[in-house]
Amino acid sequence: MILKKPTYEELKQKIKGLEKESIELKRTEEALRESNERIETILLSLPIGIMIVDSETNKIIDANPQAILMIETPVEKIVNSTCYRYSICSKEENKCPITDFGQQIDKKECVLITASGEKVPILKSVIPSVFDGRKCFIEGFIDISEHKRAEHERIQKEKLQGIMEMAGAVCHEMNQPLMGIFGYSELISMDISENDPLKDNVAKIKEQIDKLGEITQKLMKITRYETKDYLDGKIVDIDKATE
Asked: How far is CA 6 from CA 3, 11, 13, 232, in A?
């Protein structure tokens, strides 16, 4: 079988086709490189901690600068350590909410333990993915400390408002009967002699009325929410709440 030699024009067209394919390939490679650079720039600049975790070993493959900043340790110490080392999901091995218990985590409040041992409340989300041919989880998390503090302050203010309203109502309701008891004790004191045994009892009644008056005055001066232990629960600490 004799192979037909390509003509000059055929060779020329083939070379042009190869050149075109080469140019298209370079364009594709350049577009892919630019796309990867954009993605990397976004991941590096996001104010969100991002970690890539091997779904089979639970070891951290990579972490972005924000995650490194939040954990407070160099990336080389983070990579290849287990995610439960920082208590992002679970504090114990073989108790991963996703791989061991089959949970689907969209958004969940967790605690991040930094290298110094500080506990930071975070809001975390997890997305299953593939990284360099390895099944993994992309975990994103943000620090919600400020949100937690603001929420705590809001709750404290609401509690204080409720206490102040209740204290005002108690003082208002108590003042009239206290004045009545005080008035009757004065009348009794005027009707008995100095040597009458009831004189001491009346004086003690007046002392208790004065104490109740002091309590109502304190209730009117509550400025913050403070509690103390009482039996199996807690009650408002009037002294600390009025300091």
From this structure: 9, 6, 11, 98
